[in-house]
Write a structure and sequence with these properties.
Layout (H helix, E strand, L loop, with lengths): L1 H5 L4 E4 L5 H13 L4 E5 L5 H11 L5 E5 L4 H9 L4 E3 L5 H9 L3 E3 L1 E2 L2 H9 L5 E3 L7 H8 L8 E3 L9 H6 L4 E3 L10 H20 L1
Helix pairs in contact: 2-3, 2-9
Length: about 210
């Protein structure tokens, strides 16, 4: 399921700090740029309301959900407002299992091979390499040599249009994008421009 959303543009928009009143406009600006996965971290203002708005207003081919999900109760909250994606900064197996029990896509954060293998065994749909600033492409390449070939690997943290290539060369399948894509003070126009820059950078990588 997650792989389908990643096919055209495997970039996840992380909207930390998004306010509900901006959710629809910001979401549509990302969709227009080609994004198909939108994540609202739960340490944002009124995040469940924003997730609910996005779930109702985005096209059906857009996967909407939450980031910074820390416990199983939050998984249920995301499910109840229509979210279908659970992203975590850590690899709590109870959270993963709760997400999968409720048929949600789950991408836990991992920083070691031990965490990565445990998360995949618990049912994770992808592993979020976090924070990517501390896990350079050479490490990702080493992980790739031992992880299952079909495992989806998504670096998150410090990713910009000009530093994706080394990770792709090392075996990354896509990226989560935070402050280089979105900040609450940015205009919708600026967010859209940044989204297009990321999309163009990815497509140039694929063309090369």
């Amino acid at each position: 399921m997650l792989r389908d959303y990643l096919t055209d543009l495997p970039l996840i928009a992380i909207l930390r700090g998004l306010k509900p009143e901006s959710a629809e406009a910001v979401g549509l600006s990302l969709v227009e740029a080609g994004f198909r996965i939108i994540e609202v971290p739960l340490n944002s203002p009124d995040p469940f309301r924003s997730i609910g708005i996005l779930a109702k207003t985005m096209p059906k081919n857009v996967l909407v959900g939450a980031g910074t999900v820390l416990d199983p109760d939050q998984v249920i909250g995301v499910h109840d407002v229509g979210g279908k994606l659970i992203v975590m900064p850590h690899a709590d197996l109870d959270v993963i299992r709760t997400a999968k029990k409720n048929r949600l896509v789950c991408t836990p954060g991992v920083a070691t091979p031990t965490e990565a293998f445990a998360a995949l065994k618990a049912g994770a749909d992808a592993i979020k390499i976090f924070p990517a600033e501390a896990i350079p492409p050479a490490v990702v390449k080493a992980w790739r040599a031992v992880l299952p070939q079909d495992a989806l690997v998504l670096p998150v943290g410090g990713i910009k249009p000009d530093n994706m290539k080394p990770y792709v060369d090392a075996g990354a399948n896509g990226f989560g994008l935070g402050s280089a894509l979105f900040a609450p003070a940015m205009s919708v126009e600026e967010i859209g421009r940044r989204a297009r820059d990321f999309a163009e950078a990815w497509r140039n990588l694929q063309a090369a």
